[in-house]
Design a protein that fits this description.
Blueprint lengths: L1 H19 L5 E9 L6 H12 L8 E7 L2 E4 L5 E3 L15 E5 L3 E8 L1
Parallel strand pairs: 1-2
Antiparallel strand pairs: 1-6, 3-4, 3-5
Length: 113
């Protein structure tokens, strides 16, 4: 379960930012997680809830924005969701595409006191 090590790393970063901004508690943390990260949002939530117990993060809400795998066609500039192994532009049929989303793992915001 790599989600626990990811959760711990995220909480270390959040802890440093809280200290730098004189925050004592965390109320809400928002993450953006791409489809290609192989991170299961429900497992990440479980790990987050377990990791924050008894810490300065205890009671914080975790919001996860899931980002689908997206592509952009180099031929017609159309943007679309890539599904399974279908790597063709639905607009023009070209296979000349770039991946533009789906590998994110970002801390978007944090709220606290």
């Amino acid at each position: 379960m790599h989600e626990m090590s990811i959760t711990r790393s995220i909480l270390e970063i959040v802890g440093r930012q809280m200290a730098a901004n004189n925050m004592n508690s965390l109320k809400k943390l928002t993450l953006r997680v791409g489809e290609l990260t192989a991170i299961e949002p429900e497992v990440l939530r479980f790990c987050f809830d377990a990791a924050i117990k008894g810490t300065q993060f205890d009671g914080a809400a975790l919001i996860i924005e899931e980002v689908p795998l997206g592509g952009r066609c180099r031929e017609c500039a159309g943007e679309f969701r890539i599904t399974a192994f279908d790597n063709c532009c639905p607009k023009c049929g070209s296979t000349n595409i770039d991946r533009v989303s789906g590998d994110e793992l970002d801390i978007i915001s944090m709220e606290g006191d």
